[in-house]
């Protein structure tokens, strides 16, 4: 926590500030919060484009990059289904998604800390490189193992791009506009929802199955879309160097580090590894992947729960969870934090606003994957949708959520409170999943599934990105990347749980349902391994197809029931959120300043007076900034 004196400096230009020695006589002196050089460097570079034209250039460049990975992600979701089916391993779709989500959750803290250490654009370029390499490997894979390997490279690049774009959007926005800024990378879904179906149907249809080209073409399209953003940052870097501020910040950092323990070179590999808590990250990834992946592998036409290759990872993953917790507690309870930055910072996890938002992040994707992991397959096989129609329906969630969230962002900019919106959005999910339980298979379900996906997206627009803005409001800019990273990491943890549980239900229940309804073991195994070939062979009114539709409907019903049950803890976390006011200032208006006053040995009236003074100072600064922005906008 920054001390009161440091927090006061951020609002020193205001008329009403806390006196310099307010309550200081009862407190021991505290060190001023040190802003790392990487964060300071980012602030200096971002300041070069603080005018309206610079912001437009940056956000338009962000939009182009997001358009690329958004359209690719929408179509790749479909192509991945056909890829696993072409290997006669359609049921392993959940396994691949679980491994990808686990890898992404572990990579997020690593990527975010690299961003603070080396810079946003440097890590973005590396992410683009991984994205391209993974795309090439996936497109050329001839078995599911190589496809999964490519998916990991692609996931690192994809995750890195998302993190960098979200951090850039936060760097260039005030807190009350954070929801709107966060939706800029998601805006392409408004377009992609409608053109993605045309792309997938052109490459995958009854006469051709060119999923490989559908994935591979992004190896050269995506880097081209990234060029404008790179050029913007190179120009900002040039202006920052020209101003001399970067050299000054660098000199201050070198001077500070020479007085620190240790004596080793501050950019050494060992130093970087320890600062990023590489041991914690490895334990985190290993525990999740070992524990969750076996659930998606143990089922199928022949169950394997009693086999060693299923039991061993489960035991190892289960045992690694307490090891991770003990390790993180140990390094924070000892004097190691001067060279190890814990994966889960203690001061952030103690804040209800932080861990409640993390809980929401986990359950968002956990709930969504329960109904959405196999939704495309259900639509194509059990509802008789075309390739284009099934792709568009699975994209309706993103389409509606982006429109809703963007409009909400403008509302939040003036209302400046978001908790009530978050609770309302979560409540909508109960209704949406109730519709999904009823409309789960057969041609009659067409309109019901469309309506439920739209309602699901409508609710998501009220709480997915707003919850991210909520967790960012609980910290300062120094810890902003850590807060956003924690939120996104838990988002992928939820994805891992969701794909694992949905995969476990699918692989353990579907084979026996198919056998029960088809009464043909050979045909049941064929449908389970490659449902798309079966759907192209048997018409919608054939007895075999009707038996398969009934089987799919039964399993999808169970998946949706589990999803609606998981909405209960999701709603509980929504009520536990803090309802902070989203001021139109940067995050130097410090939450820590308020907490610092609360920690002082003062009377209740003195604490209230100090907090009110800080709040009034920030409000006056807020009003001046709004007036300045209005004058700039009018060209005065």
Automatic annotation (TrEMBL):
Its main location: membrane. The keyword Transport applies. Residues 1-27 are annotated as: Disordered. It is found in: Endomembrane system. It is a multi-pass membrane protein. The chain crosses the membrane at residues 52-71, 91-111, 123-141, 147-168, 175-195, 215-240, 278-298, 310-331, 352-369, 396-415, 420-439, 445-465, 486-506, 555-577. Keywords: Ion transport, Membrane, Transmembrane, Transmembrane helix, Transport. Belongs to the major facilitator superfamily. This is Major facilitator superfamily domain-containing protein. It comes from Myxozyma melibiosi.
């Amino acid at each position: 926590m920054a001390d009161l004196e440091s927090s006061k400096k951020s609002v020193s230009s205001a008329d009403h500030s806390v006196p310099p020695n307010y309550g200081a006589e009862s407190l021991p002196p505290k060190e001023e919060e040190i802003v790392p050089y990487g964060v300071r460097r980012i602030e200096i570079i971002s300041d070069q484009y603080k005018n309206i034209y610079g912001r437009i250039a940056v956000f338009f460049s962000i939009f182009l990059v997001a358009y690329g990975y958004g359209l690719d992600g929408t179509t790749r979701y479909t192509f991945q289904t056909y890829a696993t089916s072409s290997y006669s391993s359609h049921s392993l779709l959940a396994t691949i998604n679980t491994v990808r989500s686990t890898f992404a959750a572990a990579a997020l803290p690593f990527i975010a800390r690299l961003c603070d250490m080396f810079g946003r654009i440097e890590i973005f370029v590396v992410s683009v490189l991984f994205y391209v390499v993974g795309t090439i490997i996936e497109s050329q894979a001839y078995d599911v193992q190589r496809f999964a390997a490519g998916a990991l490279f692609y996931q690192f690049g994809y995750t890195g791009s998302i993190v960098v774009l979200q951090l850039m959007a936060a760097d260039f926005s005030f807190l009350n506009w954070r929801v709107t800024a966060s939706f800029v990378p998601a805006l392409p879904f408004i377009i992609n929802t409608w053109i993605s179906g045309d792309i997938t149907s052109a490459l995958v249809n009854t006469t051709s199955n060119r999923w490989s080209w559908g994935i591979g073409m992004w190896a050269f399209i995506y880097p081209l879309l990234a060029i404008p953003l790179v050029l913007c940052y190179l120009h900002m870097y040039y202006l920052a160097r020209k101003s001399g501020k970067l050299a000054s910040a660098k000199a201050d950092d070198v001077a500070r580090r020479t007085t620190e323990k240790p004596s080793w070179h501050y950019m050494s590999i060992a130093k970087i590894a320890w600062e990023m808590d590489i041991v914690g990250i490895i334990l985190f990834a290993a525990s999740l992947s070992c524990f969750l992946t076996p659930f998606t592998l143990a089922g199928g036409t022949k169950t394997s729960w009693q086999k060693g290759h299923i039991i061993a990872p489960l035991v190892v993953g289960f045992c690694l969870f307490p090891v991770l917790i003990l390790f993180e507690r140990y390094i924070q309870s000892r004097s190691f934090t001067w060279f190890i930055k814990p994966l889960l910072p203690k001061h952030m996890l103690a804040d209800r606003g932080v861990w409640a938002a993390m809980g929401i992040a986990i359950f968002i994707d956990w709930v969504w994957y329960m109904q959405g992991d196999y939704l495309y397959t259900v639509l194509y096989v059990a509802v008789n949708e075309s390739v284009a129609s099934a792709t568009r329906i699975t994209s309706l969630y993103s389409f509606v959520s982006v429109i809703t969230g963007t409009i909400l962002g403008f509302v939040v900019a003036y209302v400046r409170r978001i908790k009530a919106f978050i609770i309302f959005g979560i409540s909508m999910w109960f209704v949406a999943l109730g519709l999904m339980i009823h409309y789960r298979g057969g041609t009659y379900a067409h309109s019901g599934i469309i309506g439920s996906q739209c309602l699901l997206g409508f609710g998501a627009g009220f709480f997915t990105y707003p919850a991210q803005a909520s967790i960012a409001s609980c910290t300062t800019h120094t810890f902003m990347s850590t807060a956003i990273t924690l939120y996104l990491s838990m988002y992928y943890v939820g994805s891992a749980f969701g794909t694992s549980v949905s995969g476990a239900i699918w692989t353990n229940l579907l084979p026996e349902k198919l056998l029960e309804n088809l009464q043909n073991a050979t045909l049941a195994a064929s449908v389970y391994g490659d449902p798309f070939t079966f759907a192209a062979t048997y018409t919608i009114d054939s007895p075999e197809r009707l038996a398969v539709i009934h089987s799919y409907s039964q399993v999808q019903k169970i998946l949706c029931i589990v999803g609606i049950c998981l909405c209960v803890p999701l709603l509980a976390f929504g009520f536990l959120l803090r309802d902070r006011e989203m001021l139109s200032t940067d995050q130097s208006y410090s939450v820590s300043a308020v907490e610092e006053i609360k920690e002082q040995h003062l009377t209740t009236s003195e604490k209230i007076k100090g907090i009110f003074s800080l709040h009034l100072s920030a409000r006056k600064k807020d009003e001046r900034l709004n007036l300045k922005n209005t004058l700039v906008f009018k060209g005065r």
